Amino acid sequence: MNRYVVNSGSLITSKEARSSGFSEIALRKGKEASHYLDLANALKIAIQDYENPLDLIDKKELLTSICDAAGISTKARNYLTQDNIREILIDFFEQFILVNKQNYVDQLVNRYLLTQGDALGGRIRNIVGRLAAEKFTKHIIATLKIYSYKFQCFNKKTKKWIKDKDYTEEILQDIKSIKWLANDKRRTLVYDLTVPIVKKNVDLVIFSSFFEDFPNKSKFIQDPNHYLALGELKGGIDPAGADEHWKTANTSLERIRQSFADQNIQIKTFFVGAAIEKAMAEEIYSQYSDGRLKNCANLTNTDQFNELCNWIIHL
Asked: pTM to 2 decimals?
């Protein structure tokens, strides 16, 4: 199925690819961090003229930022009354801010930045996953164009299908689905779909037809006979988390195969990952060799990845 996956070693992420991946994430993290630094600077300007820091607690327009600095999350605020929040803020100010009243502005801004650092970490994790999906989309579309196959992309923001002639990379992050016609075969790829028969979210789902061919979309998704292949996509480049990502993906893939086998359907499964280390490469290749995985590729290996995309297009 993939001529560039010749042994387990061919799946292992190279040092060069790992370095390039870390560089891409570092640059993106720097770009995203600028937003949080701007917020911190804006907070500094907003609070620096208050002689009594406790007055900030009663400023409704600043309450969200002050809560962030105190470590009271948005989720926590949903469970707290205004009186609860005020009590927590007073305790916070008395223990950490008023002890050095002359330097309270820097204290608040620094603590605000600490909590925003958590938000940045979560945002970067989401971005890593999104970048992998965007790369997947780019390669699928490139393959479709090479074969001159007609395709459309579904924009999750506008809720509209975009024809191939109107596609631009500016909408990459908003693409939820791609449908195409290849040799009179209708195919649809959907990202991050909860598959009813599996009862879990699956990263990549390939259907054997178009949704609009059936009057009821819900029934269409519930019918296991409409599914062609399901795959897991792991875009993280850090080797420290590679094994854990594979364990999660492998559990999902095993659940998928068993769920469809219970319906007497031998579903095709595949795996794509950016960080693939020796031990997991051996497991992946073993499953690929015995047919449990119908295809696999290292996201950083262009030949392997393009070969997998070609396979998907022609399922």
From this structure: 0.80
